[in-house]
Design goal:
The complex is a heterodimer. Chain A is of the alpha+beta class. In chain A, 38% of the residues lie in helices and 17% in strands. Chain A starts with 10 loop residues before the first strand and ends with a helix. The mean pLDDT of chain A is 95. Chain B is built from six helices and five strands. A five-stranded parallel beta sheet of chain B has the order 2-1-3-4-5, with helices on both faces. Classes of the chains: A alpha+beta, B alpha/beta.
Chain lengths: 515, 176
């Protein structure tokens, strides 16, 4: 059947989210992307795969979000010369994804693309491609030299500040190269990939059942979102239908994860403008919530609570009531803290007009998730594709347009309150029945997609199965891929001491993109 | 301002008592003398290094600073540079892309120093294990005094690991 928005033959993909699959020749890739872009479709992910053991060559894959659903496009490439025309001029967010795909699989965009390495650093030599099937999981490479051509900025009084990979605070590792004049930032260039630990290769050594635990550790702060996306992908590929009660419980878990992360960020955003009161208050509330998680679901961060087929632990009626009561207590305190933040002249002075991403820039570059919703990109999977359990809840997407730190703070406050409403509604309407369905056996070559609005933005899992319930290829995709490049823009013209604040206001994942 | 002060007064002091050291967490026989440990115990400066973690352990390391655990109340604080640190708190599996940075951070930390590996991945390599891009456990790269398992370990577990490292308890004196 043709896709609603494009004249392309696409087959519906089984699964919870509306999705389609199409295979096109490399020659049609750019035309498709141009048409998709003209129809305001977002690029959600780009990755590659090795099909040489299936009597083919390699393949490039794209996930594009249309109003009618997600389109998974595969582009078969030859074994001897796996090249394709790059699309980073159409979708700027594709730049780093193309480079990562080249490092891992030797699938290379055309010559005019940015061909600098991204994930490789010195961990394996140029010309070796660890995600190829010919590379055994036991393969080890000697550490090589690591030279990286940062873009130099020259001029009178311009100097560089290199920061990282080991940062001054308790954060993940990455390198930031600032070019500055006086205190003002002229340019920031990010270099990530430091936490690359071979997650995608690891998945290929696992069964569908084993992979659930690893999916929950792609980015530890988004464990629920990844576990749900993984479960959704496996359920789609195997034709498994999770029971309604499990879906409602998943909704509760996902919103609790959102609340916990937003509380933590709101605390740190206070801390970064010297309002340490905010840190201590919000982190007290976050700790209260984490303890409730441990008590009700057996884990402070809800790891492994979602499993393919359903959820691992039920929420009995009494526990649900205590959860609701607990959230009401936290909500009352957040109302108080919000009014303190709103009226604190010092904090607002630092928040407002700092680290701005205008809606026009956000649209052009593909900003997504909570940062997108602070810059006028009113997209939220829970609203745009309201599948159970969100269908009957009428979730509201937060939307602000100023695109500064203050807007990203405001989105977090809005979402904390909305998520609390959603959890309370889900607890009240919890359907009876089982919490887990048996997972059917997958045929080799089955595809499944998981697509979940995590607290940071849309998390995607694209899965293709191998024989014996194993994984042929799995690509986990974090929204930070899209948003990291916008941080480089957001800091323009700001002063260096505001960088930690701006960075925290995005709070992007390193592990989720380094894989 | 009134509201802020009212909130502080209403909250009161929520800090809870610290856990006791646990000799079972010790990996190496204590290398440092009692005199040094006595001083560390009073004012310990920690540099955290994420050597490839999923960020789960980092959440709990943040947690030790929250008012319930209040690690600064024990005289322990996190510092911005390894040159100011007495102890490295290392999470991971150690990715190959972080291996050199971890070695350099260790070298930049003045003697005498302690290393505490945090989390299942730091202890054993965890679910990521060893691979083309992962060196596995922290002890494969730098010497580790105390290893704290958990995915992630709770703030109490982390504080217990830190206190074990500075307690001078030997593993032969198993938890008394």
């Amino acid at each position: 059947m043709p896709l609603k928005e494009l004249p392309i033959e696409a087959a519906p993909l089984a699964g919870a989210m509306p999705a389609f699959y199409a295979s096109i020749p490399a020659g049609e890739l750019r035309g498709l992307c141009e048409q998709a872009r003209a129809r305001k479709a977002r690029l959600v992910a780009l990755w590659g795969s090795d099909e040489t053991q299936r009597r083919a060559g390699y393949a490039l894959h794209l996930a594009l979000a249309f109003p009618s659903g997600l389109l998974w496009v595969s582009v078969p490439l030859s074994r001897d010369d796996p090249r394709y025309p790059g699309i980073a001029d159409i979708y700027p967010a594709a730049n780093r994804m193309q480079r990562a795909t080249a490092d891992l699989l030797g699938i290379i965009p055309s010559a005019d693309a940015d061909r600098r390495k991204w994930l490789r650093h010195g961990a394996w030599p140029e010309g070796a491609f660890p995600l190829r099937k010919t590379v055994e999981s036991s393969a080890r490479f000697a550490q090589g030299p690591d030279r990286y051509p940062f873009v130099p900025v020259e001029g009178e009084g311009v100097h560089e500040i290199p920061v990282g990979p080991v940062h001054a605070g308790t954060i993940e590792p990455g390198h930031f190269r600032f070019s500055i004049v006086g205190e003002k930032i002229l340019r920031l260039e990010e270099r990530l990939g430091y936490t690359h630990k071979g997650i995608e290769k690891r998945f290929e050594q696992m069964t569908l059942e084993e992979g659930a635990k690893l999916a929950g550790r792609v980015s530890g702060d988004s464990t629920v979102a990844y576990a749900w996306a993984y479960a959704m992908a496996v359920e789609g590929a195997t034709g498994t239908e999770p029971p309604p009660r499990a879906l409602a419980l998943r909704g509760i878990l996902l919103e609790l994860e959102r609340i916990a992360n937003h509380l933590g960020d709101l605390g740190y955003l206070g801390n970064d403008v010297a309002l340490s009161f905010g840190f201590f208050q919000f982190w007290r509330l976050k700790e209260d919530l984490l303890r409730t998680h441990a008590q009700l679901f057996g884990h402070r961060y809800l790891m492994d609570a979602i499993v393919p087929g359903g959820v691992a632990k039920d929420l009995p009626r009494v526990a649900g009531e205590s959860l609701t009561a607990h959230l009401e207590r936290i909500e009352r305190e957040v109302v108080t803290l919000k009014s303190i933040y709103d009226e604190h002249a010092g904090a607002q002075d630092r928040f407002i007009m700092t680290g701005q991403v205008t809606p026009a820039l956000a649209e052009r570059m593909g900003l997504t998730g909570l940062a997108g919703r602070a810059s006028g990109i009113a997209r939220d999977l829970r609203v745009d594709y309201a599948i159970p359990p969100y269908q009957q809840l009428d979730p509201r997407a937060a939307s602000h347009t100023r695109g500064d730190v203050a807007a990203r703070v405001a989105v977090r406050f809005d979402e904390v309150f909305e998520s609390m409403r959603l959890v309370q509604a889900l607890v009240q309407q919890l359907p009876p029945g089982d919490i887990r369905a048996p997972v059917a056996v997958a045929a080799a070559g089955a595809r499944g997609l998981g697509w979940i609005e995590g607290w940071r933005g849309e998390v995607l899992i694209a899965l293709e199965t191998a024989a014996a319930n194993r994984i042929h290829r799995l690509h986990p995709h974090d929204p930070s891929w899209q948003n990291w490049p916008l941080l480089e823009h957001a800091v323009h013209g700001n002063i260096v001491p505001d960088f930690p604040l701006i960075n925290k206001s995005f709070n992007l994942s390193y592990s989720g993109v380094d894989l | 301002m009134y509201q802020l002060l009212k909130q502080i007064a209403k909250t009161g002091i929520v800090s809870e008592p610290a856990p006791l050291p646990d000799a079972a967490l010790r990996q190496l026989e204590q290398r440092l003398g009692q005199v040094i440990l006595k001083h560390f115990g009073r004012a310990l400066a920690i540099r955290h290094v994420d050597a490839g973690s999923c960020n789960g352990c980092e959440l709990e390391i943040h947690g030790v600073n929250n008012p319930y655990y209040n690690i600064e109340g024990l005289g322990i604080k996190f510092v911005a540079s390894p040159r100011h640190a007495d102890m490295l708190l290392v999470t991971g599996p150690v990715s190959k892309n972080m291996e050199e940075a971890l070695r350099r951070t260790f070298a930049a930390t003045p003697e005498p120093k302690l290393v505490v590996a945090i989390g299942d991945c730091g202890c054993t390599g965890g679910i990521f294990g060893e691979g083309y891009a992962s060196r596995g456990r922290v002890a494969n790269v730098i010497p580790v005094d105390v290893a704290v398992p958990g995915c992630p370990p709770s703030p109490l577990d982390i504080i217990q690991g830190i206190l074990t490292a500075v307690s001078g308890l030997r593993s032969s004196q198993a938890s008394r």
